[in-house]
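Backbone-to-sequence.
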């Protein structure tokens, strides 16, 4: 077993444990899934199991296909996908993206920044410039979308885009966003045609971002 694969799996275990811990403690989500005290929390347990398995599979794929990019490159993507599976269901059920997951993403990026300073200092400046441009560019684009199209992008989505910019950088973010927009378009058309949503209803962006990012990372590694 390669050193990159071991490191990827360790990061995946840690991040999925942290995400799962906060996911289980999310009271609004629990109330939306379990209306009575006697109900079993089986829905979230199944969802967590599926989310963690998918994350491990993608971590292995990244370790095998992006080994030349280095462990730090892979770790950033593992951090992101570990945050997206809890965000997806919470946003779907409650139309909110909790700040605690945004904070976990930013703290993880700071930790990785320390590792980059120690092991990849020569490329750190270029990396940070690309990530700042990605984060700021996505934030501005999301604000414009929110102003121009009602119920298109929420504050939670804006904050998530900033985290994505810092974790994926200028080279990786656009594939994830483009794929997420395609997913959102398909889902939105389906919901409108089946009359499950109207044009005035807000459609959660979190699940589309999660699925789009998963597809992008799984297919091209970003």
């Amino acid at each position: 077993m390669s050193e990159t694969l071991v490191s990827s799996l360790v990061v995946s275990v840690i991040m999925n444990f942290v995400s799962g811990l906060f996911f289980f403690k999310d009271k609004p989500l629990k109330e939306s899934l379990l209306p009575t005290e006697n109900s079993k929390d089986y829905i979230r347990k199944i969802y967590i199991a599926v989310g963690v398995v998918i994350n491990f599979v993608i971590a292995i794929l990244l370790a095998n296909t992006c080994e030349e990019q280095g462990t730090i490159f892979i770790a950033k993507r593992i951090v992101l996908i570990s945050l997206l599976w809890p965000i997806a269901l919470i946003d779907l059920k409650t139309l909110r993206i909790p700040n605690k997951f945004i904070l976990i993403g930013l703290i993880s990026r700071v930790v990785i920044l320390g590792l980059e300073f120690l092991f990849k200092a020569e490329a750190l400046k270029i990396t940070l410039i690309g990530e700042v441009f990605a984060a700021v560019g996505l934030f501005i684009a999301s604000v414009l979308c929110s102003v121009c199209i009602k119920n298109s992008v929420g504050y939670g989505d804006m904050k998530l885009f900033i985290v994505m910019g810092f974790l994926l950088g200028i080279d990786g973010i656009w594939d994830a966003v483009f794929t997420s927009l395609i997913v959102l378009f398909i889902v939105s058309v389906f919901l409108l045609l089946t009359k499950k949503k109207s044009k005035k209803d807000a459609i959660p962006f979190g699940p589309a971002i999660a699925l789009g990012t998963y597809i992008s990372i799984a297919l091209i590694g970003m």
